[in-house]
Design goal:
alpha+beta, two-stranded antiparallel sheet, 12 strands, 47% helix
């Protein structure tokens, strides 16, 4: 290599070294500048946080104590150790102001927080009490109009744009903010800096506190979702706020109801499932929902339903109070809902059981009493005959559901009732389930009489139907009359229609009603007395089972039971 080539190589090497040094120096300058900005941001946010704590203490807690709006124990429960947190952060603010007053590239910030990190455990006490504090505020606002009005006036007076519940979340959000700021400060501190080791120790200790606080932040988000849902739901909504209850997901699924398929909006939390109907009207709170039911998942299970031509993307949810089939819009949505439900049930300590029930029908109940899942009712469209005696259902011979197995039966095959522990009430059951539950091998005389009485109910809803039969224009034949109602045979019907109302039976006929004479004497002479047929007997309507007619299974079995309609007016003769 010649001298010229060696000199060229050295020149290239010096230029490359200068380029690399400029790059490193430029990166170092940017890191120092960014580090200074982060330090200033820590100081600025700390001042804002301390001001918020002063608002909570000076504008809310102390006035509540002085004006005696609430009992002192409730005020202490709402604000917990907020004054201790205020004292801690005032010390942190003073230390930060002293350090940043003479800040340079070699200044340290880790040692300031390293001394104060053990005191930050006071935040854990505040976070553990936060959920109960928010619940107590909502309860007192519902029960005390004075407290509710006081909060509204204070919100308007302070003009901060944040209610008390939003201010109380600020201490919980501060610890995760510390973690993010110190991670950025550590990242922009070069390795040879003396503050790097201190920042590493400080960040490690803050992470332990932040992990605990993040759980409270998640609880706060779920609580806000519950409070929002409570405002949007109409109807008899049970209390939704509860400890350790997290929001999981929501969406629309198709529910297989007794008569048809219906869209329902579902909200899944860590221990409950809520569903209802989305209303068309919108209010100040946004979209409203009509509440239908709340299902606890601690004794529930999920069963996959294989696809078939008539139904796809379906699965079943079984619980002790209510069981039903749900249909998702697509396979991905189905799998997502099933995974979330199974995970919630598993976390509650109950594993998902295998499929013990066929689609729609649950007959193989292993535990018929405590803890047994409620059956999935057979839809009305599936069968037009009783599933036990095969009698055809009509307007008179109505459908009934066995509350233990869910099959469709007639009134005669479900004339008895038994107390079901999972439903905590006495319900209609079919004959087969009654034999299994009561442990009897055959029907008792009383049960036979009740069953016979149910099968021999009088088939007329009013005396108008009977009059139509007597006059010969009714839609019912005499054969059906004599077959279904022995008490009113063809001969008795003919005797009612005979002149003068004379009956061939031993019982006397009711007296005939007389015509009132006309007021005009001439018309009285010209008129001939008309024969009036005897009055038809007053036939009461067949007894209707409240559990079957006015229960929630008529229109939508998951809706709240409607109020009983006014009594049927008496028939006119």
């Amino acid at each position: 290599m010649s001298a010229r080539e060696v000199e060229a190589a050295r020149l290239i090497q010096r230029q490359w070294t200068a380029f690399v040094m400029r790059k490193l120096f430029s990166k170092l300058v940017r890191s120092i500048r960014h580090r200074n900005q982060i330090a200033q941001e820590i100081l600025t946010t700390e001042r804002s946080f301390v001001r918020t704590l002063h608002v909570i203490v000076d504008c809310y807690k102390r006035p509540l104590i002085e004006e005696e709006i609430l009992p002192r124990k409730h005020i202490d429960a709402i604000f917990s150790n907020i004054e201790d947190i205020l004292s801690i952060n005032e010390d942190i603010l003073k230390a930060l102001e002293l350090r940043l007053a003479d800040w340079n590239a070699q200044s340290c910030l880790g040692d300031v927080f390293l001394r104060l990190v053990p005191i930050l455990k006071q935040y854990q006490t505040y976070c553990s009490n936060y959920r109960s504090a928010i619940t107590l505020i909502e309860q007192k606002r519902d029960t005390s109009s004075k407290f509710d009005l006081w909060l509204k006036n204070k919100f308007t007076e302070l003009n901060l744009g944040l209610p008390l519940t939003s201010l109380l979340i600020q201490p919980i959000q501060r610890i995760p903010r510390y973690k993010l700021l110190f991670e950025e400060l550590y990242k922009n501190t070069y390795e040879d800096h003396k503050d790097r080791t201190l920042l590493e120790d400080t960040l490690e200790r803050i992470k332990h506190v932040a992990d605990y606080v993040n759980e409270s932040v998640r609880e706060h988000q779920s609580m806000e979702k519950l409070i929002e849902l409570k405002k949007k739901f109409t109807g008899n909504v049970p209390p939704l706020l509860a400890p350790k209850r997290f929001f999981i997901r929501d969406g629309t699924l198709t529910k297989v109801c007794r008569k048809t398929l219906k869209k329902r909006v579902f909200f899944l939390f860590s221990d409950i499932l809520i569903y209802g109907i989305r209303l068309e009207t919108t209010t100040a709170v946004g979209i409203e929902y009509k509440f239908h039911r709340l299902i606890h998942l601690n004794n529930a299970s999920v069963v996959d339903v294989p696809d078939k031509p008539s139904m796809s993307n379906a699965f079943q949810l079984l619980s002790s109070t209510k069981s039903f089939t749900l249909i998702a819009d697509n396979p991905g949505d189905k799998r997502g809902w099933m995974n979330c439900l199974e995970q919630c049930i598993h976390n509650l300590g109950r594993k998902t059981i295998d499929q013990r029930y066929s689609v729609f029908v649950g007959k193989d109940l292993e535990n018929p009493t405590t803890g047994a899942p409620a059956p999935i009712w057979v839809p009305d469209r599936e069968h037009d005959r009783c599933m036990l005696c095969t009698m055809k259902f009509t307007t008179i011979k109505r459908r009934h559901h066995c509350r233990r197995c869910g099959v469709l039966v007639c009134g005669g095959c479900s004339a008895r009732k038994f107390r079901l522990e999972n439903l905590n009430k006495t319900c209609r059951v079919c004959d087969k389930c009654f034999v299994d539950l009561a442990g009897v091998s055959e029907e008792s005389p009383a049960a036979r009489d009740k069953k016979a009485k149910a099968k021999l109910k009088f088939p007329f809803r009013s005396a108008k139907d009977l009059g139509a039969l007597v006059s010969g224009s009714g839609g019912l034949s005499t054969g059906s009359l004599s077959t279904s109602t022995p008490a009113y045979s063809t001969s008795s019907a003919q005797s009612l229609a005979a002149p003068g109302g004379q009956s061939s039976s031993s019982s006397p006929a009711p007296p005939a009603r007389r015509n009132h004479p006309p007021t005009d004497p001439d018309s009285r002479r010209d008129s001939t007395p008309a024969r009036t047929p005897p009055p038809l007997p007053s036939v009461p309507a067949p007894p209707l089972d409240d559990e079957d007619i006015w229960s929630s299974e008529d229109e939508d079995e998951d809706a709240l039971p409607p109020s009983r309609p006014p009594p049927r007016p008496p028939a006119e003769f």
